[in-house]
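sorry to bug you again but im stuck and you know this stuff better than me. below you get a single protein, a line of residues and a line of whole numbers that encode the local backbone shape. mainly i need to know what kind of three dimensional shape the backbone takes. anything you notice is useful, everything is just below:

***
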Amino acid sequence: MILATRKSHLSVTLLNALACSVVFLGVAPATTASEMPRQLAAEAKRAYQAEQKILADYSTATEASALLAYARLLARGRIANDHNPVRVADIDAAIAVYRSLLAAGDAKINAKVTAGLAELLVRKGGAANEGEAQALRAALHPAEPATQAPPGADAQAQDLATDGEAALRDKMSKGSLDAAFELLLLLNRQNSPEADTLRSQLVLMANLSALDSDSAVIRLAGRYTSSFDAQQHPDVLKSLLALAAGYGNDSAVAIIEKNRDVLFSILGKDELRHLMWELVDGGSSRAAELIALDLVDENVYGFDEADSKWAVSMLEEARSYRANYLIAKLYYQGIYVEKDLARATAAMDRMVDGAAEAGQERLVVADRFARINLSDSLIAKYALPIYLDIWKGGKSSVIGRLARIVVSAEKAGYYATSVAMPISPEQLVAELSSAYDAGDLSVGLILGDIFREGRLVKAEPARAHSIYEGLKQQYADSPEMQLKLREALAKLVRQDLEVTLNYSPYYAEVRELAGQHNLWAMKEYGMLLAKGAPQFEADPEAGFTLLLNALSQGYFTAGPDAAGLALSTGSADKLKRLADVYANFDPRILTPESNVQLAKIDFALKQFDKAEVLLDTPEMLELPTGRFLLVQVRRAAGKLDAAEAHRQMKDVVVSFKGDDATLLGFVQQLTQEDGLSEDFAEPILVRLAQLADRRDVNAIIAAFKLRQKWPSSQALNFRKVVGWCNILAERGQGGPLTRVAVNVNPKVVGDESFRYLIDTVEGALPHLPTNGNLRMFLARQYLNGQYRPRDFTKADQLTKQAAELGNEEALNSIATNYYFGHDVEMDRDRAEALYRDLAFMGSNRSALALARNYSKGPSSRVYESRAFAYYIKAALNGSVTAMTEMGRSYLAGAGAVQNEQKGVAWLEKAAELGNTDAMIQLYYYHFIKNPTNQNAEAERWLNALVAAEVPDMILRKAVLLYGRDKDANKDEIFALLDHAEELGSQFARRLKNSYVKEARAGVSK
């Protein structure tokens, strides 16, 4: 309170102290929640009026003592208004008054001014202010290193513990509370009867000191609270705490919070709660804040909802910096009040705007943001600027906290590019590395995670491993940190499992960590059990249960996985069990992402109205996952048609800036919808391509599938597909690149893209040491000499490598070389033996080669039967060429009894599979039976050959139409001849000229 009130309280306290029977000051503990606020409002009115008179006197004061009192009042804070006891400090104005007193040079109060100014500069924060404070303290105590004087401490107190009794008595006689306290401890150790007298003197000195400055009293209260003497003399403890509380200093609140459990045991909850009211009466905003949040913090002190609401209103009126945080928390989470996102974010905006002037308080507030359960984007928006401002001001110790927010926001997609980040990834990592190298172990985990994940900078697994192992040594005595570091190392092992194949050791480590209740390991092991893995047998029910256990312990990251399993099985029982786990949490602590999971459960249970209520709020609509799901809910409820739902879902996908896995899920859900045109899908596929370009394997696989649905998509063009195949090839997965190489049509993709494919294949071979197909693909390019310089040596080397890998094409090529004596001595027996082995293993090439060799042999039934046997083997194995030869064999009776019906059946089977030789054979078969222009069966196959663009058969069609009715079919005839000419038929041009001449001759007649 103000000076007059403090003197009034002092007179009572002095009398009680002398009688060694101390009681609380001020009003007695209230019996109802509303009584104490009413009494405080009445006292605030009297104090406010008295303070206004004193402020008027200060405005004209010139004496150093009056100006010092004015500076202290400004630093402590002025009463907010005539009914609100909360004080609002004006640090800048207080500093200005202190500076004027330094310039005045009053020797009597210079030390007090210097110490007070130094304390305020530290409170304001910033490298420049802290540097000036250090210089002021060094000047105040030139014989002592400046670093030995902590903020707000009497430098002389540091050596008191080593002083003798005489020295302590001497310092005590000069007014040192610290010396009196140390002397009391000394007398207690000596079991001196003088201790009781000294204790009373200590209280008296504290009251006298409080008239001049309350900082020493608060320091004494803090030291005494943690002493053994306090437990034996609770009356003295109450007296000192009440004295400190009466001045409303926030530091007194810190004493209570720090020693809360001890104070509960000594004083009890009721008296401790009354101390908090005393602090509010003295103007402490921190005490009011603690009352406001008591119900949120498990009602530690026993304040009720009416108390808390009153405290909120007082803080909001006072407009203290930390009050903005409190208002944001209450309205964001809906504590005591209806949720109001606009009001909450407005309070957060005020916090950010006032960060530069808030001094050390801004660090406290920024640290508390994480406890509001804000989304990643909101934390980045509101907490990050405060940390950045503090860091730029020279406080490097916040770099770890700053990094955690930046990394989390980057993962959530808050930054579209690295350029948009408030600090470049390289600088952030450099700052973290410097801090870690300088001994700041608190940044070790985040730095190791950055190098492990490789998101901000290139992944360096070895460096991450080194950091984790170094931290394990440093935190050898911390079981909690050991568990965290084992988790980090397990994640590092997990990333490389596909290469190392160390599945069993990894599973054993995760199982052990899960057994020690490591929540990440519980989630990981739960997913392994739920879905199975290499060398790991699935147990879906056990896995789901483990995920629920992790979620029930507050590991909300397990929620989406548990929901995914429940939704994939469609089990109502699993969905209800999951909903029950979420229901056990206070809704205020559930993150927006968790509410999305709840809405998914309601959606799956067809509780559309319930899901819509959860999702249709401003807060949830800030989340892309919430908006995307809301569209699906409304469509299922019949409130949106398919076209509008697709449009809204597409808007979410195109504008999405979140994590890659969520975006991929959106893309996959939307592209599974029916009725999407290629133009509509293209922007969606662009986002998918961006994911694939970031080497996301699941996105690459999805892109391959969707390219089959929309083959002409520019976002999924051939070159991109080849590039993504190469990403998989680098990981040892050569299947996709092999499929592209085997099935590519160079004419369709163009020469430049085909060369790009060849380059990619050649570059990928070192990563695919067992892939013979790609080696043969490349060998053909060196043999053909079109896209690579012809190089028989390199082609032969690649073919031999492929043959050693068991590649059928390569082995057939070697067999053919032996058969014809290409580059080796002719050895047909060896060639046929190799052909037979390959045919036995299912090679159609070898079976056909043997069949053709036997067909060219002596004209005997033995050779024809052998040829037929290999033809039928290849035909039954799917060879279209062999099917055609089977048809010819049955029609001619070569190697089998002649059977026209079987022959035609085999030819038709081959023709249906696109074999033009079979079509030609069928055309002639039917034409020979009826060589007229009215043969429907023959014309059916002739038309098929025209569609297959066989030039000779196009000519035959034109001749057929000419013979049937040249005038009626004139346009079609010439169109067919033009097309045949385009395909390279010289005879088509001559025939066309002949028809033209004939037509002219007819006209002239």
In short: The longest helix spans residues 35-59. Residues 1-33, 144-158 have pLDDT under 50 and may be disordered.
